[in-house]
Design goal:
The complex is a heterodimer. Chain A is an alpha+beta fold. Chain A has helices spanning 20-28, 55-68, 91-95, 122-126; strands at 2-11, 31-39, 45-54, 71-74, 79-81, 101-103, 110-112, 132-134. Chain A has 2 domains: 2-74, ACT domain (Alpha-Beta Plaits, 2-Layer Sandwich), CATH 3.30.70.260; 80-132, Alpha-Beta Plaits (2-Layer Sandwich), CATH 3.30.70.20. Chain A is built from 4 helices and 8 strands. In chain A, helix 1 packs antiparallel against helix 2 (55-68). In chain B, the strands form 6 sheets. In chain B, strands 3, 4, 5, 6, 7, 8, 9, 10, 16, 17, 18, 19 and 20 form a 13-stranded antiparallel sheet that branches. A 3-stranded mixed sheet of chain B has the order 1-2-21, with helices on both faces. A 3-stranded mixed sheet of chain B has the order 11-22-23. In chain B, strand 6 (78-85) and strand 7 (88-92) form a beta hairpin. Classes of the chains: A alpha+beta, B alpha+beta.
Chain lengths: 137, 398
């Protein structure tokens, strides 16, 4: 059975020109989908991937990445809704490209599914009440 | 069956009043019928919680020594209106910070402004003031920099010239570019439709002819007690209505007033609207006394009965053409997906229905506990037969 995980990869400059994702496919039979990618002027890289594969292979992939010096983190840990500030209006759901934020019908409360979040921060920009924080460690 | 406010207040005092929210009353009447329900139910509570521009607060600082006739001032970097009296100021909810780049870097994020200032004031945070004057013989001071909290000043009351729209536009974007409006982000080619009303919970939709809500009506305002002060600006009671007496456009509005010192920051929220500016999200709840069957019947309004105009905010709204794309009911809007001209359009709310319901329930508990009494209006709001009509600018352009 296949599992999917959304992870953020942080590359040091020495690794940005290496075909790392290719190795994941080749070595561990991982299917990947690039959700976001960014490189700084200093050459550090950030890649947000959805990895799909067997559970054991996913674990091996993460171990491999760690060994070669790529820092990884799960995206789901990074989005925080501040309950004390959120009024459940629904404006975040209007810009969310992956429906991580959605509206419960009929009670009309706003639901957050952190595992769907790709960390694009569109919601952070439009939240009128400053109630959403996205952290990349 | 006729009841009076006095009779209902007597029951409230005795802790015997039967109170339902505007959501609960729908099923109560469905089950027991209008005739029985009118005997049973005394009050229906409504609620709404959404960004309401045309809000603001007056404050009187108390005189400095020596005295000063303030002619220009900012609080937390937000300019306030000083042309009222020496130490009286008015904070406008949509005033942006003095150094805000606004839409120079489009779309502006508008992180702080009048609405946030009001929230901070109510939250008892320290407010920084910078005030200037030209100086007079009896008010010689020309400059004042200081700090204060809400507890340090004489008076402050919320006075919102236009709140609580009876109904409101649904916004879409028929253009080719994404736009940022006070009704949220609108994706091109009708990528989404945004709406802003508590629907079946909304105060003026539950009393569409303003039979019980009038000038002087005591209400839930910003977490405390407030009053209807006047018909709101742009009040448009003669707007066309459907068979359920629901206006097909904005229609009625109210001006509200209340002591800010007893309000709560949770119900007066500073609001940053990307690309538009700042505003104040206001919590309002209005009790409707069930005096007769007719009044009760109107409180049973459901989202299905409420129809709102869908308007193109890329062109028709800014150009004031008056054109509407179509009309749509609130039950469909709240389902999350509507169909306009064969296109499936996802829908999103701007105002908070869960918070509106919370307000209706808080007001219900206040009344049931005997801590909130109902009022007879001092004067009615202008109704559909009045000659008040909202119109565009009629003066001359040059």
């Amino acid at each position: 059975m296949d599992f999917s995980k959304r992870i953020v990869l942080h590359y040091p400059p020495s690794l940005t020109e290496k075909p790392i994702v290719y190795q994941l496919v080749k070595k561990y039979d991982i299917m990947f989908n690039i959700l976001r990618a960014r490189f700084s002027v200093e050459g550090e890289g950030m890649l947000l991937l959805e990895l799909t594969g067997r559970k054991g292979n996913l674990a091996k992939s993460l171990k491999y990445l760690k060994e070669i010096g790529v820092k990884t983190e799960f995206v789901s840990q990074d989005i925080v809704r501040l309950e004390r500030k959120c009024v459940h209006c629904g404006i975040c759901s209007m810009v969310c490209p992956t429906a991580a934020f959605s509206i419960n019908v009929p009670e009309m409360t706003v639901k957050l599914e952190p595992s769907r979040c790709i960390g694009c921060e569109e919601c952070v920009k439009v939240c009128p009440y400053d109630a959403i924080k996205v952290f990349f460690l | 069956m006729q009841k009076t406010i006095e009779e209902i207040n007597k029951k409230i005092k005795q802790g015997r009043a039967v109170v339902c929210t505007a959501e609960e009353i729908i099923d109560v009447v469905k089950e027991s019928g209008l005739k029985n329900a009118v005997k049973k139910v005394d009050v229906v509570t409504t609620g709404t919680f959404g960004p309401m521009c045309s809000s603001g607060a007056f404050l009187n600082l108390g005189h400095t020594k020596p005295k000063m006739k303030i002619s220009k001032a900012s609080l937390n970097g937000v300019e306030v209106f000083c042309g009222v009296a020496a130490a009286d100021l008015y904070i406008g909810a949509t005033q942006i910070s003095q150094d805000d780049p606004a839409n120079a870097i489009y779309p502006g994020s508008f992180k702080y402004g009048g609405g946030h200032l009001i929230e901070d004031l109510v939250a008892k945070k320290t407010i920084k003031i910078r005030a200037f004057s030209y100086g007079t013989d009896e008010y010689p001071r020309k400059e004042f920099f200081g700090k204060f909290t809400i507890d340090d000043i004489n008076d402050t009351f919320l006075f919102n010239p236009r709140n609580c729209y009876q109904n409101y536009n649904v916004a879409v974007n028929l253009g080719k570019e994404k736009i940022y409006t006070y009704l949220g982000v609108l994706k091109p080619r009708m990528g989404n439709a945004n709406y802003c009303s508590a629907g079946q919970l909304s105060p003026l939709l539950n009393d569409p002819e303003y039979r019980t809500i009038g000038i002087g009506t005591r209400i839930f305002l910003g977490g405390g007690i407030g009053y209807v002060a006047w018909n709101g600006t742009q009040h448009d009671p003669s707007a066309p209505r459907n068979e359920k007496n629901v206006p097909r456009s904005g229609a009625g509005t109210i001006a509200v007033i209340g002591d800010l010192k007893q309000m709560k920051p949770a119900w007066l929220r500073g609001t940053s609207i990307v690309g538009y500016g700042v505003s104040l999200t206001v919590g309002i709840g209005i009790p409707i006394p069930i005096l007769d069957e007719d009044i009760l019947k109107y409180t049973c309004i459901t989202d299905k009965d409420i129809v709102a105009p869908v308007i193109d905010y890329s062109s028709d709204y800014p150009q004031a053409t008056g054109r509407i794309v179509t009309e749509i009911d609130y039950a469909s809007l709240k389902s999350g997906l509507i169909t306009i001209k064969k296109k499936k359009v996802p829908t999103f709310p701007i105002s908070s229905y869960p918070k509106a319901l919370e307000i209706a329930n808080i007001l219900k508990s206040w009344i049931k506990k005997g801590g909130f009494f109902l009022t007879n209006p001092v004067a009615p709001l202008p109704g559909k037969e009045s000659d008040i009509k909202f119109h565009p600018f009629k003066g001359k352009y040059k």
